[in-house]
Amino acid sequence: MSKQIFINLPVSNLDKSMQFYAALGFTNNPQFSDDSAKCMVWSDNIFVMIMTHEKFSGFATKPIADTKNNLAALFSLSVDSVDEVNSITESGLKAGGTEPHEMRDYGFMQQRTIEDIDGHSWEIFYMDMTKFPTQ
After folding, report:
1. Which domains does the chain have, with CATH numbers?
2. Which tens digit of pLDDT belongs to each residue from 29-73?
3. pTM
4. What DSSP letter does each residue of 60-121 carry, written as one string?
């Protein structure tokens, strides 16, 4: 089995969260989904498990963070172009996400940040290594 990453997130509204992640380009894997959790697939090796608070609490050893008011983590997704950064972010905004600041341009990398309806922060970025500063 290849190495994979599963990001597990508690969400307040499973259906709205599923719509948000679908708008970003994730697809649902019904094999690992039920009424309390949805497996949203970004790529062959990257998955986001969105879960009701009740379901998530069964795995958690600490209280669930209030990600609307506190940053718990930054999740970053690379894409193939600046146009794709913009398209994904705009689709997420239409699906109820919020953008906490303008696009950041580092010369070799352009990044936009979008928060889902629960405040989980996603950085969508394009990196052109031919523009990476040499030392």
Report:
1. 5-60+72-131 (3.10.180.10)
2. 999 999 999 999 999 999 999 999 999 999 999 999 999 999 999
3. 0.91
4. -SSPPP-TTTS---EEEEE-S-HHHHHHHHHHHHHTT-B-SS--EE-SSEEEEEEE-TT--E
